[in-house]
Specification:
Chains A, B: GO terms for molecular function: polyphosphate kinase activity. The structure is a homodimer. By secondary structure, the first copy, chain A, is α/β, with parallel strands linked by helices. Chain A has 12 helices and 5 strands.
Chain lengths: ~280, ~280
């Protein structure tokens, strides 16, 4: 028995955004506990992998379709966890992951979308952006890395870019992983507690916490300005890792199923090929 | 209780190669049946994912190390299956897969290694080549896509290239998926039987079977000429899919463990950072 769609529950409605009104520890559309949630995620795996394979197969017919999953969120919100536990459920051949770091000099010398356009998924693939062009209106706004006029310009540029992307056959699934400042503190402390996680810790992450409110403001503005009909935002409560992974798996599954990729029909005569194989005389 | 290393069992010894003397349906270093083999593969998963994560972490210290898994084999030998079931065991963030198709015009206008060098794994990653520069001495030899002199040159060029790669910190793990002509016929027939697999079938694959013996010759020459100390070949019996997946998982695990990546040591004062977090006064 499959769950009803989670998409309507986490899709951001149009209009002004107040992140503080969205619970970070909710478990949208799921009544069970962590154990049940993990079991549900595992149960979705084969269905997700199946529909992904059909999308992957479809490209051999010349179809340009693909899906781009955009993951945004504060440090420790779990972009890496989603990659590992949700995206990891499908065949890695069909996945193209791009992690965006601080732009290089070359990248800074170009329009902010230049590096983004070079990293789009190929036909048939699920592309995943671990951070994205949204950093250019988030950290860029908080730390004034660009002029106010340039940042203002970017919202529109993003909408135009995403609309083109959708028109060319890419489903754009945007997820903001929503955690609380308290949960982030817990996660940073637990990274400090475990020497196997020290490599994930950056003292700069603590400095950034001083800008927590400014980041939430920047997110609210960005979400509102870029929450378009063709590429809407989803706010995924992420204080509970299992619920975050499950919600995104469900979203991904729902969007892929809505694309309804089908197995390509053979462009050869199946019986003829079977006969060729059965009648061949092979020298080995 | 872990199994003894499989590497010595499938590593190709130096000297002339006779593929017909290597059983395609063997299950090297494993006594159990399919069910036991699949359980063993699942059991290796967490260990493999753990050592992969340490390699991935290591790159943050500036280490250039990476691992390149080269998958070669006749059509249907299971390169895709290895990607899905073996490579799929590790975090997709740390994996970079490149499938090489027939070269484009631009690629043909360059040296055959040009496109290869552009697809090498980044530090900390496992790169996987689904087909590789070896096609340039395999299909190229069978179908005379290059002059005899050029193909002759390529063996040396490959050895020089791989030696450089190893010297720069990339472990090169080369696997030839070894199937019989009979098994290939079965697999092609089963693709015809299943409409969900028609997209994987190409009538050209049947034509290619007429060149089976020529391909085996080309493989034997390529394996012998490029079976170097620093980048040796492994011949992986692949008539049994489960054994193929398990053997490559074991090889990958053994090579990664031999690299012995360790968790990076914190370059900050852990107590100081903990105190900063615990004492902060945060405005949210």
């Amino acid at each position: 028995m499959s769950l009803p769609p989670v998409e309507p529950l986490v899709r951001l409605p149009p209009g002004p955004v107040d992140l503080s009104s969205i619970q970070t520890d909710a478990t949208p559309g799921f009544e069970g506990d962590k154990e049940a949630g993990e079991a549900e995620l595992a149960a979705i795996g084969p269905e997700l992998a199946g529909v992904q394979e059909r999308l992957f197969a479809e490209r051999t017919t010349g179809s340009p379709r693909s899906l781009l999953l955009v993951l945004q969120g504060m440090d420790t919100s779990g972009k890496g966890g989603v990659l590992r536990y949700t995206v990891g459920l499908v065949d890695p051949q069909g996945v193209q992951i791009k992690a965006f770091k601080a732009p290089t000099k070359t990248e800074l010398s170009r329009d902010f979308l230049w590096r983004i356009k070079r990293a789009l998924p190929e036909p048939g693939h699920i592309g995943v952006f671990d951070r994205s062009h949204y950093e250019d209106v988030l950290i860029a706004r908080v730390h004034q890395l660009a002029s106010a006029a340039e940042i203002e310009r970017r919202y529109g540029a993003i909408n135009d870019f995403e609309a083109e992307l959708v028109a060319s056959g890419t489903v754009v699934l945007k997820c903001m992983l929503h955690i609380s400042a308290v949960e982030q503190k817990e996660r940073l402390l637990s990274r400090l507690d475990d020497p196997a996680k020290h490599w994930k810790f950056n003292p700069g992450d603590v400095d950034e916490r001083a800008h927590w409110a400014a980041y939430q403001d920047a997110y609210e503005i960005a979400l509102e300005r870029t929450n378009t009909e063709v590429a809407p935002w989803h706010v995924v409560p992420s204080d509970r890792k299992w619920s975050r992974n499950l919600t995104i798996a469900r979203l991904l599954n729902e969007r892929l199923k809505a694309m309804a990729p089908v197995w390509p029909v053979a462009d050869f005569d199946v019986e003829e090929q079977r006969a060729r194989l059965l009648n061949e005389v092979l020298q080995t």
